[in-house]
Write a structure and sequence with these properties.
The chain is α+β, with helices and mostly antiparallel strands. It has one domain: Alpha-D-phosphohexomutase, C-terminal domain (TATA-Binding Protein), CATH 3.30.310.50. It is about 45% helix and about 25% strand. A three-stranded antiparallel β-sheet has the order 1-3-2. A hairpin with a 2-residue loop joins strand 2 and strand 3. The longest helix is centred in the C-terminal third of the chain and has 28 residues. The chain starts with 8 loop residues before the first strand and ends with a helix. One of its GO terms (cellular component) is EKC/KEOPS complex. InterPro entries: CTAG/Pcc1.
Length: about 90
């Protein structure tokens, strides 16, 4: 994600997961929900079993709030995903 002067605060997360299937599932599930604020941009991608998330925001506060919300959603998705993987679905 290119940094622009209007979105100077950036963060890139690389989250290793147990399988590429879980990384892809998480990316698809999380990409459905757009950022609530126009002051934040997010992109999701996968690289094998790693979920990559790139954020840019107008302020550090906006970045922090968005990332906190993302981790809450990620927790829900992963709890369900792990349960399904263990069950062999």
């Amino acid at each position: 994600m290119a940094t622009s002067t209007s979105f100077p605060c950036t963060l890139t997360l690389s989250i290793p997961l147990p399988s590429s299937h879980l990384a892809t599932t998480a990316s698809r599930a999380l990409s459905v929900d757009a950022e609530l604020s126009p002051l934040v941009r997010r992109s999701l991608s996968t690289d094998e079993s790693t979920l990559r998330v790139e954020y840019s925001a107008t302020t550090n506060r906006m970045l922090r709030v968005a990332v906190n919300g993302f981790f809450e959603s990620l927790g829900v998705v992963l709890a369900k995903g792990y349960k399904d993987e263990v069950a062999g679905r």
